[in-house]
Amino acid sequence: MIKTHDLSGRHALVTGASRGIGRSAALSLAKAGAHVIAMARTTGALEELDDDIKSLGGTATLIPVDLTNGEAIEQLAPALDQRFGKLDIFVANAGALNDLTPITDVDAKIWNGLLAINLTANWHLTKVLDPLLRQSDAGRVVYVSTGTTESFKPFWGAYTVSKAGLEALAKTYANEIENSTINANILNPGATRTSMRAKAMPGEDPETLPHPDEVADLIVEMCTPEYAKNGARINYREWRDAQVSD
Prior knowledge:
Blueprint: E1 11-15, H1 20-31, E2 35-40, H2 43-55, E3 60-64, H3 70-83, E4 89-92, H4 108-133, E5 140-144, H5 148-151, H6 157-176, E6 183-188, H7 195-200, H8 212-222, E7 233-235, H9 236-245
Parallel strand pairs: 1-2, 1-4, 2-3, 4-5, 5-6, 6-7
Protein backbone atom coordinates (compact mmCIF):
# COMPACT_ATOMS: atom_id res chain seq x y z
CA MET A 1 0.00 0.00 0.00
CA ILE A 2 1.38 3.42 -1.00
CA LYS A 3 1.74 5.78 1.93
CA THR A 4 0.63 9.39 1.79
CA HIS A 5 3.08 12.12 2.74
CA ASP A 6 2.75 15.74 3.82
CA LEU A 7 5.30 18.11 2.29
CA SER A 8 3.49 21.32 3.21
CA GLY A 9 5.80 24.30 3.47
CA ARG A 10 8.61 22.63 1.56
CA HIS A 11 10.14 23.86 -1.70
CA ALA A 12 10.95 21.32 -4.40
CA LEU A 13 12.96 21.97 -7.56
CA VAL A 14 12.35 19.47 -10.37
CA THR A 15 14.31 19.48 -13.62
CA GLY A 16 12.81 18.09 -16.80
CA ALA A 17 9.45 18.87 -15.25
CA SER A 18 7.49 19.30 -18.48
CA ARG A 19 7.05 15.61 -19.34
CA GLY A 20 7.57 12.03 -18.28
CA ILE A 21 8.82 11.21 -14.82
CA GLY A 22 9.67 14.85 -14.10
CA ARG A 23 6.13 15.99 -14.80
CA SER A 24 4.63 13.25 -12.67
CA ALA A 25 7.08 14.03 -9.87
CA ALA A 26 6.17 17.71 -9.99
CA LEU A 27 2.46 16.93 -9.79
CA SER A 28 2.88 14.41 -6.99
CA LEU A 29 5.09 16.74 -4.95
CA ALA A 30 2.55 19.53 -5.39
CA LYS A 31 -0.27 17.19 -4.38
CA ALA A 32 1.71 16.38 -1.22
CA GLY A 33 1.83 20.09 -0.41
CA ALA A 34 5.23 21.19 -1.70
CA HIS A 35 5.70 24.39 -3.68
CA VAL A 36 7.18 23.15 -6.94
CA ILE A 37 9.93 24.99 -8.78
CA ALA A 38 9.55 23.48 -12.24
CA MET A 39 12.43 23.67 -14.71
CA ALA A 40 12.29 22.68 -18.38
CA ARG A 41 13.13 24.12 -21.78
CA THR A 42 9.58 24.46 -23.11
CA THR A 43 7.53 27.36 -21.76
CA GLY A 44 4.21 26.07 -23.11
CA ALA A 45 4.61 22.67 -21.47
CA LEU A 46 5.53 24.33 -18.18
CA GLU A 47 2.41 26.48 -18.36
CA GLU A 48 0.29 23.38 -18.89
CA LEU A 49 1.96 21.81 -15.85
CA ASP A 50 1.21 24.93 -13.84
CA ASP A 51 -2.47 24.69 -14.78
CA ASP A 52 -2.56 21.07 -13.62
CA ILE A 53 -0.79 21.89 -10.36
CA LYS A 54 -3.29 24.68 -9.68
CA SER A 55 -6.15 22.28 -10.36
CA LEU A 56 -4.76 20.14 -7.53
CA GLY A 57 -4.72 23.16 -5.23
CA GLY A 58 -0.95 23.43 -5.43
CA THR A 59 1.47 26.21 -6.36
CA ALA A 60 4.45 26.39 -8.66
CA THR A 61 7.23 28.64 -9.91
CA LEU A 62 8.13 28.12 -13.57
CA ILE A 63 11.70 28.43 -14.81
CA PRO A 64 12.14 27.87 -18.56
CA VAL A 65 15.86 27.21 -19.00
CA ASP A 66 18.38 25.26 -21.02
CA LEU A 67 20.41 23.35 -18.44
CA THR A 68 23.53 23.63 -20.59
CA ASN A 69 23.39 27.42 -20.13
CA GLY A 70 25.95 27.85 -17.37
CA GLU A 71 25.24 31.53 -16.87
CA ALA A 72 21.55 30.83 -16.28
CA ILE A 73 22.38 28.10 -13.77
CA GLU A 74 24.70 30.46 -11.88
CA GLN A 75 21.87 32.99 -11.61
CA LEU A 76 19.46 30.38 -10.27
CA ALA A 77 20.67 30.15 -6.67
CA PRO A 78 20.64 33.89 -5.88
CA ALA A 79 17.11 34.17 -7.32
CA LEU A 80 15.86 31.23 -5.25
CA ASP A 81 17.64 32.49 -2.16
CA GLN A 82 16.04 35.91 -2.48
CA ARG A 83 12.57 34.47 -2.94
CA PHE A 84 12.56 31.39 -0.70
CA GLY A 85 15.69 31.50 1.44
CA LYS A 86 16.17 27.73 1.21
CA LEU A 87 15.56 24.64 -0.90
CA ASP A 88 14.20 21.45 0.64
CA ILE A 89 14.08 19.13 -2.37
CA PHE A 90 16.05 18.79 -5.59
CA VAL A 91 14.91 16.16 -8.10
CA ALA A 92 17.61 15.90 -10.77
CA ASN A 93 15.46 14.29 -13.43
CA ALA A 94 16.24 16.00 -16.75
CA GLY A 95 18.04 13.73 -19.17
CA ALA A 96 18.69 13.05 -22.83
CA LEU A 97 19.00 9.86 -24.86
CA ASN A 98 20.75 9.49 -28.20
CA ASP A 99 19.80 7.11 -30.97
CA LEU A 100 20.94 3.62 -30.01
CA THR A 101 24.19 2.93 -31.81
CA PRO A 102 27.56 1.25 -31.23
CA ILE A 103 29.71 3.37 -28.97
CA THR A 104 32.37 3.56 -31.69
CA ASP A 105 29.82 5.16 -34.04
CA VAL A 106 28.63 7.90 -31.67
CA ASP A 107 29.20 11.37 -33.10
CA ALA A 108 31.35 13.64 -30.93
CA LYS A 109 28.61 16.27 -30.81
CA ILE A 110 26.11 13.70 -29.51
CA TRP A 111 28.61 12.37 -26.96
CA ASN A 112 29.38 15.83 -25.62
CA GLY A 113 25.70 16.76 -25.59
CA LEU A 114 24.73 13.74 -23.49
CA LEU A 115 27.50 14.41 -21.00
CA ALA A 116 26.45 18.06 -20.84
CA ILE A 117 22.81 17.27 -19.97
CA ASN A 118 23.05 14.04 -18.01
CA LEU A 119 26.21 14.76 -16.04
CA THR A 120 27.68 18.26 -16.21
CA ALA A 121 24.37 20.09 -15.75
CA ASN A 122 23.67 18.02 -12.64
CA TRP A 123 27.12 18.77 -11.24
CA HIS A 124 26.51 22.47 -11.87
CA LEU A 125 23.08 22.39 -10.25
CA THR A 126 24.39 20.45 -7.25
CA LYS A 127 27.16 23.01 -6.85
CA VAL A 128 24.90 26.08 -6.89
CA LEU A 129 21.99 24.54 -4.96
CA ASP A 130 24.06 23.04 -2.13
CA PRO A 131 24.07 26.22 0.01
CA LEU A 132 20.28 26.46 -0.27
CA LEU A 133 19.83 22.79 0.60
CA ARG A 134 21.95 23.35 3.71
CA GLN A 135 19.42 25.96 4.84
CA SER A 136 16.76 23.25 4.99
CA ASP A 137 16.15 21.18 8.10
CA ALA A 138 16.09 18.11 5.85
CA GLY A 139 17.39 18.71 2.33
CA ARG A 140 16.63 15.82 -0.01
CA VAL A 141 18.23 15.17 -3.41
CA VAL A 142 17.10 12.51 -5.86
CA TYR A 143 19.25 11.80 -8.93
CA VAL A 144 17.26 9.92 -11.58
CA SER A 145 19.45 7.33 -13.30
CA THR A 146 18.87 4.16 -15.34
CA GLY A 147 19.12 0.40 -15.21
CA THR A 148 21.69 0.36 -18.01
CA THR A 149 24.39 1.29 -15.50
CA GLU A 150 23.94 -2.26 -14.20
CA SER A 151 23.60 -4.12 -17.49
CA PHE A 152 25.83 -2.04 -19.82
CA LYS A 153 23.57 -2.99 -22.70
CA PRO A 154 25.06 -2.81 -26.21
CA PHE A 155 24.23 0.32 -28.20
CA TRP A 156 23.23 2.32 -25.10
CA GLY A 157 26.86 3.22 -24.44
CA ALA A 158 26.93 7.02 -24.54
CA TYR A 159 23.77 7.28 -22.44
CA THR A 160 25.04 4.67 -19.98
CA VAL A 161 28.41 6.36 -19.58
CA SER A 162 26.78 9.72 -18.85
CA LYS A 163 24.42 8.15 -16.28
CA ALA A 164 27.25 6.16 -14.67
CA GLY A 165 29.03 9.47 -14.24
CA LEU A 166 25.88 10.88 -12.65
CA GLU A 167 25.79 8.00 -10.18
CA ALA A 168 29.44 8.61 -9.28
CA LEU A 169 28.60 12.28 -8.73
CA ALA A 170 25.65 11.36 -6.53
CA LYS A 171 27.56 8.89 -4.37
CA THR A 172 30.50 11.25 -3.94
CA TYR A 173 28.20 14.12 -2.96
CA ALA A 174 26.36 11.83 -0.54
CA ASN A 175 29.63 10.99 1.20
CA GLU A 176 30.56 14.66 1.41
CA ILE A 177 27.24 15.65 3.04
CA GLU A 178 27.12 12.71 5.42
CA ASN A 179 27.30 14.93 8.51
CA SER A 180 24.83 17.53 7.21
CA THR A 181 21.03 17.72 7.20
CA ILE A 182 21.00 16.75 3.51
CA ASN A 183 20.78 13.30 2.04
CA ALA A 184 21.25 12.36 -1.61
CA ASN A 185 20.16 9.15 -3.30
CA ILE A 186 19.93 7.60 -6.76
CA LEU A 187 16.67 6.38 -8.28
CA ASN A 188 16.61 3.72 -10.97
CA PRO A 189 13.04 3.90 -12.33
CA GLY A 190 13.62 1.05 -14.76
CA ALA A 191 11.70 0.92 -18.03
CA THR A 192 8.85 3.42 -17.70
CA ARG A 193 6.00 4.53 -19.97
CA THR A 194 7.65 7.71 -21.29
CA SER A 195 8.23 9.24 -24.71
CA MET A 196 11.98 8.70 -24.27
CA ARG A 197 11.43 4.99 -23.73
CA ALA A 198 9.06 4.80 -26.71
CA LYS A 199 11.68 6.42 -28.93
CA ALA A 200 14.33 3.95 -27.80
CA MET A 201 12.09 0.88 -27.97
CA PRO A 202 9.36 1.58 -30.58
CA GLY A 203 8.24 -2.06 -30.76
CA GLU A 204 7.54 -2.31 -27.04
CA ASP A 205 3.99 -2.25 -25.69
CA PRO A 206 3.94 0.79 -23.36
CA GLU A 207 0.98 -0.61 -21.46
CA THR A 208 3.29 -3.28 -20.03
CA LEU A 209 5.40 -0.62 -18.31
CA PRO A 210 4.78 1.36 -15.11
CA HIS A 211 3.31 4.83 -15.60
CA PRO A 212 5.51 7.76 -14.48
CA ASP A 213 2.90 8.55 -11.81
CA GLU A 214 3.75 5.24 -10.14
CA VAL A 215 7.46 6.09 -10.05
CA ALA A 216 6.58 9.53 -8.69
CA ASP A 217 5.15 7.91 -5.57
CA LEU A 218 8.64 6.66 -4.74
CA ILE A 219 10.19 10.04 -5.51
CA VAL A 220 7.83 11.72 -3.04
CA GLU A 221 8.81 9.22 -0.35
CA MET A 222 12.52 9.82 -1.02
CA CYS A 223 11.93 13.56 -0.61
CA THR A 224 10.33 13.42 2.84
CA PRO A 225 12.22 14.61 5.94
CA GLU A 226 11.71 11.13 7.41
CA TYR A 227 13.61 9.42 4.59
CA ALA A 228 16.94 8.55 6.21
CA LYS A 229 18.89 6.78 3.46
CA ASN A 230 21.93 8.53 2.04
CA GLY A 231 24.07 7.41 -0.89
CA ALA A 232 21.67 4.58 -1.74
CA ARG A 233 20.62 3.37 -5.17
CA ILE A 234 16.91 2.60 -5.08
CA ASN A 235 15.28 0.41 -7.74
CA TYR A 236 11.65 1.31 -8.34
CA ARG A 237 10.48 -2.26 -8.99
CA GLU A 238 12.04 -3.57 -5.78
CA TRP A 239 10.36 -0.75 -3.84
CA ARG A 240 7.01 -1.44 -5.55
CA ASP A 241 7.17 -5.13 -4.77
CA ALA A 242 7.93 -4.33 -1.13
CA GLN A 243 4.86 -2.09 -0.97
CA VAL A 244 2.69 -4.90 -2.30
CA SER A 245 4.06 -7.42 0.21
CA ASP A 246 3.35 -4.98 3.05
